[in-house]
Amino acid sequence: MAYLPIADYGIIGNLHTTALVSKQGSIDFLCLPRFDSPSVFTRLLDDNKGGSFAFQCPHEETNFKQLYLPDTNILVTRFLSKDGIAELTDFMPIAVGENDFAIFRRLKGVHGQHQISVAITPNFDYARSGCTATPLPDGSGYRLADPQGRQPAMRLLTKAQLTVTSDGLHGDLELAAGEDIDFILTLDSEGHEFHLEWMYHFRKTREYWVAWSAKSTYRGRWREAVMRSALVLKLLTSARYGSTIAAATFGLPETIGGERNWDYRFTWVRDSAFTMYAFLRLGYREEAEAFVSWIEQQCMDNLQLMYGIDGRKDLEESTLDHLEGYLGSQPVRIGNGAYDQKQMDIYGELIDTIYLYNEAGGSITNEFWRAIRGLVEYVINHWRDKDHGIWEVRSGKQRFLHSAVCCWVAIDRAMKIGEARSLPHPRSQWRVVRDEIYREIYDDFWNEEQGFYPQFLGSDTVDASALLMPLLRFVSSKEPRWLKTFAAIEEKLSADVLIFRYKQEHGATDGLEGEEASFTICSFWYAECLARIGRLEEATLVMQKLLGYGNHLGLFSEEIGLHGEQLGNFPQAFSHLSLISAAFQIDKQQQ
Q: Average pLDDT in the 400-427 region?
């Protein structure tokens, strides 16, 4: 199999880890037992040795169709060939603990007679260990083990008769209409046995997702797209910790053949904060409560940009040089060297989330408030510091516009929390600094010659993050200077409805080689801003066009190329949370 487009994948998960299932029914990406564990299937990043769990029809002209069962993360892949119709149903039961992992796969003959081959070729530890397969003594399936012992072994429970090979398991299946063949992949650990009760687990999983979807308060336009995005965000949220990851994958390129290939299986404070905005807007308070609890336990004493999902702070970056990368895009990175960057914007985004949580009736204890005050004091003492900015540039620190705006947000929202709950705080001192930040941004950051607010103080480059200024309530959407900035973004950073983060021109650089594609979160910010400034008809059209760039399941990666291709890690929380926000705002303006 050659590399499939990134857009040809769906996602399933159990709230501890996720798997990507291709349009052809192959699981080409899976980390065990949790999101940031080493991979066992990584064909998405190396077609030759990455490993997968694949089915193959003998007819090249086979068509493939894929869909989710309504309001669930249960994925159905259909094989349509001259032999008839076969159907593959994939899901993970919702797991209590990380070791309760299981993937249930049912291959069903719908019409006609089928010959389908199966190849299960795990390559443990990021494709560094290989796999040893052995039949289980009771004949219920097979054991798949890491020869190096670095990862837990797996069990494949199935009645299918498979052949043990040097790289795993292979078999040729005969499938008649009305016949089912089940494959259940679990961890080989005591006390976590899964039996072939496929229908029981299917019903329980379907009931869970349908009930979760029913809690949404959103009834507006584009509800199906909004709910699919919410379901993605839920899959990227850890049931154990309450933290969220930025994307399901690592190493997928922002430019084919380029070096912008990052590991996004970690908890960015910014991304998680924006995710909680989305959950709260849809009525999902429990997710926000779990995240705030995680924040209280892990981050309030010494806030850093990003963490492991369990709160670990050292995310040392390394490269997997033995993997060729998606379509030859190297290096393939794990870990993320940006974890120790200074980014002042995270203080505003985090405190804004706590503010929204408070507005939704969340609890702010005295201890928590004292920790919030500590964050505000840090902002007051450091808001003029240079940092790496929202886009995590590796070219050195600057006084970024978005960081300054978020320092203002941090103080402003903390003041609102304190006043709403009559909590003790130096209101006059905070107000003086907040207003000083406002004046400096409004006057000193403004580039009169260019006619816009630039990426950083003294820059001649416009940056799409300026679209957040009215979304964060720093300026009115009718503010003349911001409207000029908006016009500059339209002129310099747009390709129809697709918006780029920035362009590396006028001496601007992010410290990396090559160009990048349009940034999906910026495109949805653009749609939301159009609605806010009153260009509602345009906003509606832009939103509809953007939804057309989603894949066949309504999923989005980080970026969209000018040929409409999905690029970067997939699916991306940033993209889906901004879709929710844009749909919410446009629908609100239409009422």
A: 97
